[in-house]
């Protein structure tokens, strides 16, 4: 296992370099530069442009900027924001945990919803429970996250004169777990789960739910499951002990692939719910051609995707002992 | 996010019983079921009661200080901004930075304001801020005597020292060195200080010089020790002589200030200003979130896009709604080659006039805001008030007013007379940002092609991402025409020079490269006028001229709204300069009844 992990990690290096190159040069290729963005809609005089470019190090050749940035990034120094001159690393320390936590919670929410319902739906195939579950899954897939979030924001204020907490109410998990989870899961209190992590999770659960059902149906028809039934095992033992593990293998793959979707979804959800995370920042940074911020965030996302895929592969081995890495 | 929570202390001091744990599990299970209720809930109309809005005049705030009672000190004002783009008003050109500057910084003069309604004659007139007096012994000399009781905020490195004339000279020199707006003071020859007296010597007369000193885009007085304390000091925090002391800034979260206990101004009764203990601006980008926060009472004041005013009245029936036209110009700009190379078709003024006559401005206003609005003149908008803005619907504008009238038949005739048939022309516009900052932009933009089509003009829409739009179209690199916006300047002179002077002579916003020597000469003559009456008359004459020429085709100025909780008192109406000078012009005299 260890050689495999090391090999995978080494293989991820060219991937990450490729991503960094693409991000670095693509951002600069977009028309409209950061000097113009700093100037707003005011005209940019040549001397103002030269001054800002010098201040920001943009007067150097692009390859030189890239090498300098990559070297610093390896030391976790992502430079300063071109927009507000604040340290990117410092800001990442504040925003990355927020988005990461929201993503993990969203994933958990989606699994909590999808796996039991997918299982039950398969076990009670063509029953009312199955039809309702499938309808719910289609509904979750069909309802856009931004719409659902907006409806919650709007109707909570219209019907109950309630608003979700402002970003300044957010507290890190290790500072105050209750307030932290309330912010992301139960923003109106009373354990009503309509927070940003829940909305994000709900939108993901539809896919997992349908896949879980399909895999479960397939596994339940396998000979070894039939044997388990024939041995007179209890239903819970058959399903959880024998069928579930095998049914989960493709589901785990999909969960791994959903990491980038969660990151993408967090951009919208963070804006709607005013979550002080990395997604909102990323969106604004792109609009303002904040090259250093965009590069740092994109690189981190790439790292997250590489790691999550590695974790998925490692999980295979746990779930299916037949899979061995060499 | 920097809370020093005692959560863990409380937690470690309690035992969670088995019964309590089971209760929590049950609640979690019940709440999981609520997902389906929310997700599958049908639509339903709001059961709120619309507020009585009445006529525009009736819904304006009009309570004078006397009718509101005696101001009570204390409380935190909760407002919102969508974006913070830096803290140094000298480095920035964006109003987003200038709007926040006056919480912490001061100017020599500021724009006149009052609680409630300010008569239009007083719009964009100045009053003293750091200055105790301004003398103008001759057209080229302005002698500003500073107040003797102004201290910098009591924080290192200035530690509450007295603000002197040398601080003004330092600020002026820094402004002239780094500000993207520094051309606004090109008329100044020298600035010198002797104690509390600062003397501005001009190269040429400039009748609106006092307005320029009050401008929110230009001469903020900032302390040298602070600015030079580090390379990023002025971007890390704010330290000035203003009414509020910068407290904290967290990107996408909050920007806040606390009361400056040593602020120099007092109210009429001699009580210290500001009344508020603190100002807290939540950074919220989503408009629905803003309305929701306001309805829940978590924000005290918000600006409201015209289309959403009914929602606000419905959700917050007790809210006080203020309304006024803003000074942002919406307009068509034409390809620069029309004026630099006489390129057809827009070199012919009849074509530009035809475009203007094809626009049904009242219909656009109906689309944008049920409270209506005004027609802007070019380049002076209704938000300047009737002392400066010549109403295109009025009789004083003369024959140029015809160009504003919706008349498709006449538009076609003008096109025919210009020899233009089957015109097909690109229309550039910004597909992002503008619609967020100016909510009516998209509505007007979407209506334009159909209106022009009625006059036989076929429009090919060219959407451009904001950054690209600003770098290309806004900078004058485009074909056909564009539907554009112009940011707010603090006096009429800035509009005239920016939009009609040659680009290399102060015409930084001359998007179409309009080149009219007669117009430029007359603008210069107006700016040198010393009497207010002369200034007004010449300003009106210029607007008559531009309404004939239609170098730019102005669109509409809808009424825009601000909403506040009834407990918030001491509020200025939202007209004119109060849009910008938040700290001193708008929030200085705010107070809460409870």
Shape of chain A: globular
Number of E-type strands of chain B: 21
Number of helices of chain B: 22
Roughly how many Å apart are the termini of chain B? 27 Å
Strand order, sheet with most strands of chain B:
16-15-17-13-18
Which parts of chain A are unreliable, with pLDDT below 50 for 5 consecutive residues or more? none
Distance between the termini of chain A: 7 Å
Helix content of chain B: 25-40%
Walk me through the structure.
The complex is a heterodimer of chains A (326) and B (594). Chain A is an all-alpha fold. In chain A, α5 (88-123) runs antiparallel to α6 (128-142) and α6 crosses α9 (196-220). Chain A contains 13 helices and no strands. Chain B contains 22 helices and 21 strands. With 594 residues, chain B is α+β, with helices and mostly antiparallel strands. In chain B, the strands form six sheets. In chain B, strands 16-15-17-13-18 form a five-stranded mixed beta sheet. In chain B, strands 1-10-9-8 form a four-stranded mixed beta sheet, with helices on one face. A four-stranded antiparallel beta sheet of chain B has the order 4-5-7-6, covered by helices on one side. The interface between A and B is large, with 74 and 73 residues.
